[in-house]
Amino acid sequence: MCGIVGYIGHRNAVPLVLDGLQRLEYRGYDSAGVAVIHEGQIKIRRDVGKLINLRNKVESGPIEGTIGIGHTRWATHGEPSERNAHPHVSMNGDFVVVHNGIVENYLELKRELTSEGVTFESDTDTEVIVQLIAHHAQHHTNGDMVEATRQTALRLRGAQAIVVVNKHTPDRLIAVRIGNAGGVALGIGNGENFVASDIPAILEYTRKMIFLDHADMAVVTADSYHIQTLQGEPVDAEIHEIDWDSVSAGRGEFQHFMQKEIFEQARAVTDTMGGRVDFEKGDILLKELNLDEALAKRISKIVITACGTSYYSGLVGKFFFEQLARVNTEVEYASEYRYRNPILDENTIVLAITQSGETADTLAAVAEARKRGAMMWSVVNAIGSAAMRTADGYVLMNAGPEIGVASTKAFTTSLVNQLMIALRLGQLRGTISAEQSVFFAQQLSQLPRLIGQVLEFEDQIKALATVFHNYKDFLFLGRGINYPIALEGALKLKEISYIHAEGYPAGEMKHGPIALIDEDMPVLAIAIQDDLYEKMISQIEQAKARNGIVIAVATEGDTFIQSKADHVLYVPAMNSFLSPIVSLASFELIISIIVSGSFL
Length: 600
Ligand code: BG6
Prior knowledge:
24 strands; Rossmann fold; Glutamine Phosphoribosylpyrophosphate, subunit 1, domain 1
């Protein structure tokens, strides 16, 4: 991850690509690069740090070409360095690639290619893609770039966006989208065409955009484009005219910002893990947290304090910190905590979770805690905000700007941040073994794909929304690590639709709220196959006994639940620590569809 820009036409691609990358700077990155084809050769410039470094490099060693690709990178595999920055070139020097996403099976593919004699220049998963394309072109497709790219794409696990160029066919570039690692937009120009991960990058040049769907591949020349599925079926893609006003421009192909931000979550979690999780070794690097072994061992308590959605994120975080790091953790409403005369000492960490970093109650609560000797950490999205500036240690969400009223990608990334902090704490406190670290890192690498898979159920969720959009009351239920997701689901529905909703830990249902259940109050229950599955089934039975209509969020392949619930929304099977992050996506989608009426 993070930003992709490509150009093919009659102008010099380099300034266009660099300007496009500049417009994506807001997404954050740690290195950048650009490649062109000129006189049959691939020319590359890459550097770490800000784009200005890359610009300086291009100025001192100019390159030019009428086809070019560029990238800004948040490191996911391998440190931020020139060697690991995109674009990456194949060993035989024929192909060059930029890529957003995580190749989950890159180790397996790397081993396979290494055994065939391929040598690697970088530590990235991206290099596996370009080497595999070159390998297919050489051994299986007789140099056919389109077929080699298609065969490679079919072998990649995970959600990806890829742009590839070949020095022998400088009249075309290929863009591929697999899953929901973020979008791929084609910008249609006059005698020139563009590709970008985000439309602001190319909006200055064209307002005509095509958005690739999951598993689509576009072959783009200066004056044509052909889109097909990875199975080879032609795609008749719609051209969207992006309006001139900045709101429509920012929203792109989506009906509203909440929908856009829901769909950005797979990419946001990739960005938040970028440079922080070593998916091979299991190491977690959180530089700005200022956490060392001595501090990790000294911490006796974590107090999470936050408001609204961020508070519910903290309720999930409590499970991470207690289970993985074995640290006693409390979660407090900031608006209450600041007036509570809390008991704290220098071995307590007060952790503020805040998207904006400026919520007054949260800032006041941590200020109060610090006065009493506690240390302060923050998980924050807004760079430079008070919660970041004043903390002893912080982790940025890297979710990008959140415009929709209801927090979606900031909530998701704050969960990932807390999971990373808990893993790091556990590693330093010795509560997590080296094998477990590798296991969890590999689980984390699957997150973008898992979230993306839920979003692919949009049509099924739309059908459900048509049934339920007129109801006035909803009950959300969950257990264990997923009960905060029930509370968050209810909050989201209330906040953006003004529909009454309650969220409860399902075990509490019998202690009062069960009296509310009838055929007018649908129950949304998270009933994935974890340790508490049977308990959830029994609670679904209780709701049914009161004539409740039950919509269950269940694990793919669970057919038993169909005999218990009226409707089932499936999510992929996953480790239970990831389940709150993934389950929420299905709630968000149904809520956003109910609110926007986009099924009508
Ligand atoms: C509230 C918003 O005002 O602030 C909630 O309505 C939000 O949606 C809460 O979750 C906390 O905001 P922040 O920026 O501190 O995470």
